Every structure is written in C-alpha cells, then in structure tokens.
Amino acid sequence: MKQYAEIDDMIADVIDENDADYLQEAIRCYNAQAYRACIVMTFNAVFGSLRRFLRVLDESNLKFAAAVRKEVEERASKNQAFEGQLVELLTKQSLLDPNESDALDTIVKFRNRAAHATGADGSQEAAKLVMTLAVNYFLGPRRPLPEVRIPTLLEYLKSPNFFPPEDSVEHIAAVVRSELKEINSKGRKRIIGHLVDLVKSSDKIAAENAETFLCGMAALGVDPDNADFDALLQPIYTSAVRKEKDMGVQTHGHLLSLFAVCPNLFGFVVLDDTVRLDPVLAALCRNTTLRPGDGSGRNPAWMFRSMVEALPRAEISRCFPMTLDAILENLWHDPAIASHLLKIGNGKDLFASVLTALRSPGLDEDRVMAVLLATHLELAAQIDDVDALMLIEAMSNGTLRGAVRAARDANFFGLHRLRDKAAKFAWENVPDQMDELGLVYPPPSPRGRWNTMRSATPAVVKVSS
Hints:
mainly alpha, Four Helix Bundle (Hemerythrin (Met), subunit A), 23 helices, elongated, disordered C terminus
C-alpha cells in the first residue's frame, strides 16, 4: 500500500473529480484537526465511487447488479442509507478482493465511530489511515475483476485525471501497461474496437483519453521489452484504418497521433487503404497546428518522421502523394519536417518552397533562416549550382531587414556550403554579379588563405567538399 509523506499529496492519485472534491474537503478537515469530519467525508467519497462502480456493473449487463442498483439509487434519492445494501452486494458477489474488503471494513468501522454518539474521539492517526486506505483501494486506479475490466476501464477513461499531466510516450505507455496487465490477449484485442469508437465520441475528455490510450498500446507494440504487445499492432491498424470507410478531419485526427508514436503501423498499409488514408492525412496536415518539442499528440511533423522512417521514398511518393504535397505546401518551414524531406531526396521541392517564400511579401525571415541553418548541408547536396545562386540572389533582396538580411551581411557565414556553391556558378557564368551578391571565389581555405589568386579570366577551380 502506498504511503504518503504529505496528506495533500493524496489528491493527485484520485481519478474522479467528484471524489477529488470530497477528499479535498476531507483534507481541509484534517488540516483543521477536525478528524471525525475528515473520516466522514472520506467515507462519502468511497461510497460515491462504489455507486459508480455499481452503475458500471449494471451497464455491463450483469444481471445481479440491476436490482441492487435500483434500490441503492432510490434510497440515495430519498436521502436514506444505502451503504449497507451496497456492501452486501459487493461481498456476496465477491466483487472485492481481500485487501479491498479489509480496507472497506476498516473505513466503515471508523466512520460509524466518528458519525455516531459513541463518545469515541477521532484521532489523527485514524483519519490518516482512512484516507490512505480510500485512495489506495477505491479512489485511485482500481484493478477490476475479469468480467468488468473492460467496461470499467472505458468508464474510467471519461475522467479528466486518468492520465497524469506529463504526456511523454514512455510515461503514457507505462500507464497503459499497468491498466492492461490483468487483461488477457483476447481482451486486449477486444478493447481496441471500443477505444476506436470512443475516440470518435462527443465526450471530449473520453475521446482524448481513448486516443492517448490507443497511442500507449501502439507504443508498447514496438517496445522490445513488451513483446507480448506486438500482436496488438495489426488489430489497432485494422480497427483504426482498414475498417473505417468514411474518414474526415473532425473524426480521425487521432490517426496523426497513432502513426506518430508507432512507425510500424505504416507497415500494414496496402494501396487500397491509401485511397482513404492519404486524403485524410493530407487534410490533417493542412489543418493541424504544429506543436513544439517531441512526444505524443497530433503533430504532422511526428507523423511524417514515422512515415520517412518506415517507408522507402518511392512508397511515400506512390502511396501518399497528397500528404507529401500538403507537407511541402504548408509545413516545409518546420526544421524537423524539412530535414525529413531531405532524407527522402526532396531537396528540389524544398528549394522551390524556400525560394517562393523568399520572393513573397510578408516573408517570415526567422522561419526561413531556421530551415536553412538546419538543412543547408543536405540541401546544397541535392540542388544544382544555379539553384544555390537563385537562393543567394533572393536572400540579397535589399528590402529584407531581419534574419535573412543579417545572414547576408555576415557573408552567409552559417550557410557556407550554399554560398560556395553559388559563388562557383557565379564566377564561372556571371562574374560581374559577384560583388553585388557579396560573393568571393575561390573560397578561403581552412587555414584562411586563398586557394588560388583571382584572375581576370574566370577559371574552373575544383572545390573540396
């Protein structure tokens, strides 16, 4: 059982918002030394949680739950005691494991002493014990019995605090692994379909949690330390992509997240799937805001990284032409995406996008320079000398005043490969433009001396790379 150094730390482990409100009030009572009130409020939180558990049992079509739930709800609506009937049902149907049964028994005993005129004082130790038992066994994540694990888990996904604020893929995968460890392989495959349905539901919190849970399952499928999850990747792809006949931006944004965390999912794509998949990924790339950093989430940069990692260039061009066009048109200015474009040999296309931006009004000089500084070595290797000169000419526009102008004033120091490529072409073909563009050829040697003396007649000089 988890122990808490500080009482206030307990609230972070509570799943449901209503339970958290009750426990927060109990903590206030505890800090005010009103220990009997603290015990009573914690008791209320526990039985509120158990009532929701009973509702899940009923909605899971477990026959024994319906009649008891009806009686419990009728009593609760009339402000009559219902706790006895609820405990009797849970005990009779063996719905509490031994630890939960002992914990509930202890909580009930301390509550009865605190709530009734028994003359017993509520102690600090008793209040802390009751809260600790409540959070460990009833208010935090629970391990339900086999017949109710899946519906209970789906119900818990409607809680805003199901996942902790930290959203790293590793942390999410750890939470998902913990939730699924008691569910067998058939149950894990069965829950995938429910999660895909929940992702498209109108309940925003449930949909986001279901998406995150699916991503955690996919991430586990490519983790060599979790080989038993590998078999889930095909069912995830089948449910999330192949069985989906109508895909749209509003209903299938989760595909960005799934492909981002699991490049292996691209391995299941066949040409027939791309007829539906390519248009929706392209639309998502046009309509989804790029997010900084790295992790899980709907980020086209992460999805494209997975695509480049999983598929050969020819397959990307053949299977995802619309997605590739959308990325080139709308997202090339992200350095990560630009780097991935170069990895699959799209330097010419990236060059065209950068050149168009440099020649356009309203240029964001910082964005263009960020891309060029991150990619200039690979870009220079994929474009012609004349292309490099066109970039330098566009960057030498006298109307520019920001980062591009600063790079030009520094003799394109941070873009030396592009600069030298442009200088070579200018020296051989348009030497009269050298001074205007601030170019010098041959370039300085690594020791700061000229490789050759500049002569009146342009000469072809071999430039080391």
